[in-house]
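Hi R.,

Here are the chain sequences for the assembly we discussed:
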Amino acid sequence: MISIAVLGYGTVGSGVVEVLSKNQESINKKAGEEIHLKYVLDLREFPGSPIEDILTHDFEQILNDDEVKVIAEVMGGIEPAYTFVKSALVKGKSVVTSNKELVAKHGAELLEIAKDKNINFMFEASVGGGIPIIRPLNQSLTADEIYEITGILNGTTNFILSKMMSEEGLSFDTVLKEAQDKGYAERNPEADVEGHDACRKIAILASLAFGMHVDYEDIYTEGITNISDKDMAYAKKLGLDIKLLATCKKIDDKVYAMVAPMLIDNEHPLSHVHGVFNAILVKGNVIGEVMFYGKGAGKLPTASAVVTDIVDAIKHLGRNIMSFWSTKKMELMSIDEVKFGYLVVAKTDFFPASKDSVLKIFGDVNFVKLNDYEEEIAFVTTKSSEKDLQNKLRIFERQPSILQIESAIRVG
Amino acid sequence: MISIAVLGYGTVGSGVVEVLSKNQESINKKAGEEIHLKYVLDLREFPGSPIEDILTHDFEQILNDDEVKVIAEVMGGIEPAYTFVKSALVKGKSVVTSNKELVAKHGAELLEIAKDKNINFMFEASVGGGIPIIRPLNQSLTADEIYEITGILNGTTNFILSKMMSEEGLSFDTVLKEAQDKGYAERNPEADVEGHDACRKIAILASLAFGMHVDYEDIYTEGITNISDKDMAYAKKLGLDIKLLATCKKIDDKVYAMVAPMLIDNEHPLSHVHGVFNAILVKGNVIGEVMFYGKGAGKLPTASAVVTDIVDAIKHLGRNIMSFWSTKKMELMSIDEVKFGYLVVAKTDFFPASKDSVLKIFGDVNFVKLNDYEEEIAFVTTKSSEKDLQNKLRIFERQPSILQIESAIRVG
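And here is the predicted structure of the full complex:
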């Protein structure tokens, strides 16, 4: 029998307790041990709940109980999670977590402690909810040198963009409100809609794939709050879809990483990922591309990944199996040199002149029109470096016939 | 340093040698050992090839070399593969294989020997080529009780069906010929187009998911040779796609498995899997659904999976980590009780009478017409048991106005 503890009885924590009870028999069989949930830590009280008798408010009680071999941290946030997890690892207890902030910020250090202590720090649930991605990157795909990972890593923004694409004329704000009403978006949606959540997740995947600590603060991040129903109409006209993509990619010996809304065509495997689903496309120099798809959030899918880690941690007590990444920070390459095309939409007070300016500044472009309305000009540029295109946009903006650039969205 | 041997220097075998050399440094790092390819076994000679010096025609030489700890069997077919693999395992050497026939037929026995000897028998490459699916089923998703696996497991047939769907009027034979010219289909395509290949793969997945030996000979298997360009036109008219799906599913306490062309709508995650790509959808009672997507065949993707197994076998010398399934054969439930809808297309010499017959026999159906042509009647039935629908089809066939049933394709 192996005793475990769960830190935090919120959505994920109660899901973990539910899954451990629901599939108790098959989980014990796979772990090769009877799993005994000895403590749940939470500051709140839960009278009448199934964990009433094992609830504790005192982390020290768990830390100092030598019977507890594995701890699941599902509180979220940096503190007190970081202090708890670190002290548990130092005490020789394996830790599994769903906490992407913690892994993105302190993953390298925590992995190193686990390695020193010959135990494990696991975080399958921190990226892609229930989708197996950390373990496949760590244990499958070992024949390959991974050179790119691109994913739809945030279900809230994918729900919003999918909805705006499928139902004409809906504004970002209207759909955000619907997502909030349905519980798909937080009351404070900033972390999702500004891309911060996806940014932390791609930082974790990049660190794992390239073996060095990628600091999420170094990652160019753009959210979806500026995407309008008109952008969606142009995308549709072009036969494209707009998705919030999180990418890290090796070019020669350098790696860049970014989070931004991108136009992709329907040949792109990620273009068919709709609603709250997530998917992660991994490219290797031997395997070509593989994609992992599923629910990226939600109580039970996330709990499924946490419990999978608990099982694996129990199977590998006293044996470190996680690849770790160096605490040395990776110098990311600037996206300035990365090549994109751009869809540009601008207001004009003289269409013919604006068209001449486009041709003069951007050269060969693909013009696109929604209707005969001549107060707006829209076009897709050929691929060029980010730096080059940003320069051209600045010049374009200053043309007398151009009133305002309304959108500039990269084409993937 | 760990010595290994490769049995068979065909497409996959030469791919394995290529991958081991190409990514040598990163592979050794992940294995935690320097991998030394000591022998390649093949009956042929390969003068001037990179393996000239390590080529042997004598399996005994490999078997009796105590330095060889891991053997990759990539010859295919049951014999001599079975004899070689079994004797290697009995000798205490771990074996990895890409051989789906071998795993489907003798997997239970070989897994048991490996367990007894505390070594491993691994077969990631036997299903889905490079797509990680065996390892995720074995090591991820352990929190879940899997109740369904449905996949597009054969790239040849998916290429043919995708092409017939995207280009109107192409017959099966024309596209098969193109697939053969492109090297996507064998000169003798029977194993692919009759569904036998997919059948062996779903037998492996079902055995792994449900823990008992599923005999592929018990699996209802229908190929795609009867799918016509007209079926494709009807499918398109209905907004559906035709895919060769391999399924195993638990209903109450019983499991059924089948391989058959199915009509699916574009909400189905597998509907966007085109060309030679494969994908496997796994459903669990906690995680909901997850999908794994990638190239299901080909030299390098398959070799990638074989080398991943080699790395894992080396990391786990002296420690068995594969879940195994019981050698006891699972009694599959007959598909008679499984419910499907059917698209039925029939020739008629009197349309109004045939329509009356449809309504009388099948009740509420959805009629579908390609044009005003009245010598053909087509409709989609509501869902009913296979047995019930087969009975109704037999009655329908005998109606005076019905000349011939041309197609009857299940709706998934």
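The first strand of chain A starts at residue 2 and ends at 7. Chain A touches chain B through 47 residues (CB under 8 Å).

Let me know if anything looks off.

Best,
T.
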